[in-house]
Specification:
132 residues, mainly alpha, Arc Repressor Mutant, subunit A, 2 domains, 3-stranded antiparallel β-sheet, 6 helices, 3 strands
């Protein structure tokens, strides 16, 4: 059964009947919906979610956010149970995803959270409210 056949069956169940015009109208509405959620923002959002979908990377963002200040790359090793190369890779991914900024200070690199990272963490914190 094709997707349009299933949609026609659904519309018939919901409305009692479904003409070809009604089916075509609904398909056009759904295509507009798809276009509204696609584009460059979708790719950027998926990159952000992918970057946060790893315990080490997520913990780095939480640590920097909680610190409320820039942290040097050397300050992560005592806090994370991974090697220096894994930390470096994680920091690079987080920076590429727009969650951290990186600044060179002499021979050290310092990292801070972006507004996007803060918004993500606030949203996650707010979603943990206890429901009755």
């Amino acid at each position: 059964m094709s997707a349009s056949d299933r949609l026609q069956r659904y519309l018939t169940d919901e409305r009692g009947s479904c003409t070809n015009d009604a089916l075509q109208e609904r398909l056009e509405e759904l295509e507009q919906l798809d276009a509204a959620v696609g584009g460059p923002d979708l790719e950027s959002d998926v990159d952000l979610l992918s970057a946060m979908a790893n315990e080490t990377r997520y913990k780095i963002v939480r640590i920097v956010h909680t610190a409320g200040e820039e942290l040097c790359v050397c300050e992560f090793a005592p806090l994370l149970d991974v090697g220096d190369s894994a930390i470096s890779h994680a920091l690079s991914q987080l920076t590429d995803a727009g969650l951290l900024t990186r600044r060179k200070d002499g021979k050290w690199r310092k990292y801070n959270t972006t507004n996007r990272a803060t918004a993500m963490l606030v949203a996650l914190d707010g979603s943990r409210s206890v429901e009755p």
